[in-house]
Amino acid sequence: MRGSATGRLLNDPKGGSFWFDAGAICLDFAHTGGEGQYAVFESLHRPADLGEWLAAPPLGVVVSVPVSAGELTAAKTLRQAIWEVAHDRAAGRPLTATAVATINQAATPAPLLPALAADGTTAEWASPVSATQALSTLAREMIELLSGPLAERIRECASDNCPLVFVDSSRPNARRWCAMERCGNRHKLRALRARRA
């Protein structure tokens, strides 16, 4: 991946926003919307929305061919598969076979290829750049995450009503919340009220 930082600003449809760092770009991508009850969080409505998400840091993918409706559909299918297997791993369940197959299929096209920029000190993505390559790169990152040393550190937020998943890359392996300023503070406030009661 081009940048080392991860994380995105998530917006609550009821108002407000917060910074959420899932610890992997593929998991950040899994939180761009969803199916069923998570459809209210959808941020990828048009192909251009996918292009804008990919262009934002840390991925910084500026596609040289406009994102197609088919690529948007493929992106949402991959996103759902990443969401499912991340929750499976966090819960200690066997991975959903259809989701694994979807991720493997998305990883088969050529991924993004890094190239040294003309200044000789920065990297960019070798042209031409397509959304399909970016999706392949995200799928490959998920494969590496699930098969690597951080697989056992994929967690779901400890809040009772927060389904966000993340990689706990903290040294003590003690991260419990999607974000301290959101669910962590809510938990502290509830605990304080309980003690006072």
UniProtKB/TrEMBL annotation:
Pfam families, alphabetized: ABATE, zf-CGNR
Signal peptide: none
Gene3D superfamilies named in the record: Jann2411-like domain (1.10.3300.10)
Domain Zinc finger CGNR: 153-196
PANTHER family in the cross-refs: BLL6575 PROTEIN
Protein's name in the database: Putative RNA-binding Zn ribbon-like protein
UniProt organism field: Asanoa ferruginea
The organism's taxonomic lineage, starting at the top: Bacteria, Bacillati, Actinomycetota, Actinomycetes, Micromonosporales
